[in-house]
Write a structure and sequence with these properties.
The protein is mainly alpha-helical and 369 residues long. The chain is 57% helix and 7% strand. The chain binds tryptophan.
Length: 369
């Protein structure tokens, strides 16, 4: 980048940060951030994570996982939280928690998260992170928590008859996930933008109230991926609970079976038309993502050969793409001791960072006795 472009980019960055993070603003800013990351990956620390509720699927993979590994490989420092407390937002008991946590670690290793470079850890093992929740909650109003559109949506779709306090407060908890390690970059999908906005608010209010002279917390940025949305095999949102998802862990036969049963339409000529023919188009997109081609190219190869040919192409593309990921997954699958060791080390590193941040917070709040 030449100096002029650099000045412009930095100016854009400054002015974008003054805006509330609406979608278009977040998208523009993400483009600017991408440039800055390429230029100097060492300036960024990423925090990202998942709830341990089951195996990850292709929707997760092309939506965010792929992007995380890309950032890691560019040299960005990365923390990956397995949000085991957040599982309890919409259910009373986290079933098979240990199993789900280990499956997540396996999925991470399979896709190329490198535990030597990236810190994989769990909520419940990092007390100082959780303690940040208390001062953070004092910085937000009940009205702000009640207004969060993602939380509202989750409550509307929850199968629980009551809404727990954790459900309302988890976005503030997520702020602790992000700020304990002073992450300045959070790769997210649209639904997580309200949480990130709250995180930025909490960071700003904490700094204003307690550390005016030197900010304790950065105001982290959302990095929106421009990954297009993949549909499940029934044409709805891809989700494990709907039984329409192809997981990373599925074997080649199961993948073939799932794609064979996928919904298409009766038109023989295959064309990419996401609005008019969403199911066919999502299959084309999936093959395209796996083959690093455009969906239009995939469609034109199939032409008028119909849905059966489309499904054959998609099955081969997915199985070929996932083969090395699945091989790595199988390689570690029987080594539970190794998975535990990765978590133990990750938790140890996360605790050291969280203890340091909490000490700073207590000093800033004059509660360091
Ligand atoms: N809420 C995220 C999800 O449901 C998971 C998560 C927990 C997270 N803590 C986070 C994501 C911090 C980004 C940053 O997928």
């Amino acid at each position: 980048m030449n100096t002029t472009a650099q000045t412009v980019a930095l100016k854009d960055l400054a002015s974008a940060s003054a805006d509330p993070l609406g979608m278009p603003a977040a998208q523009d800013r993400s483009a600017v951030l991408e440039e800055l990351i390429l230029k100097d990956p060492g300036n960024f620390r990423v925090l990202t994570g998942d709830r341990p509720t089951g195996r990850l699927h292709l929707g997760h993979y092309f939506g965010t996982l792929h992007n995380r590994v890309r950032l890691q490989n560019l040299g960005v420092e990365m923390y990956v939280i397995i949000a085991d407390y957040q599982v309890l937002t919409d259910r009373h008991v986290a079933d098979n928690l240990t199993g789900h946590v280990e499956e997540l670690v396996l999925d991470y290793l399979a896709i190329g998260v490198d535990p030597a470079r990236s810190t994989i850890f769990t909520h419940s093992a990092v007390p100082a992170l959780n303690q940040l929740l208390l001062p953070f909650l004092s910085l937000v109003s009940v009205a702000e928590l009640e207004r969060n559109p993602t939380v509202k949506d989750e409550i509307a779709h929850s199968r629980q008859s009551t809404v727990s306090g954790l459900m309302f407060t988890y976005p503030a908890h997520q702020a602790a996930d992000i700020l304990f390690c002073k992450a300045n970059l959070v790769p997210v999908g649209k639904d997580q933008l309200p949480h990130l906005e709250l995180t930025r608010t909490i960071a700003r209010r904490f700094n204003d109230r307690y550390s005016a002279s030197s900010a304790v917390f950065p105001r982290p940025d959302a990095l929106l991926s421009n990954a297009p949305l993949l549909l499940g095999t029934d044409g709805g949102k891809m989700s494990k609970s709907r039984g329409n998802a192809i997981t990373l862990a599925a074997d080649a036969d199961e993948t073939a079976r799932l794609i064979k049963g996928a919904r298409t339409d009766s038109e023989r000529h295959i064309a990419y038309d996401p609005v008019g023919r969403p199911e066919v188009s999502s299959l084309l997109l999936l093959a395209a993502l796996c083959q690093n081609r455009t969906p239009e190219q995939v469609a034109s190869d199939i032409g008028s050969a119909g849905a059966a040919a489309l499904k054959k192409t998609v099955t081969e593309a997915v199985n070929e793409y996932l083969a090395p990921i699945r091989a790595r997954r199988n390689q570690y699958a029987d080594d539970r001791a190794y998975l535990r060791e990765i978590l133990r080390e990750g938790n140890e590193r996360a605790n050291a960072v969280a203890d340091r941040t909490l000490a700073e917070v207590r000093a800033a709040m004059n509660s360091h006795y």
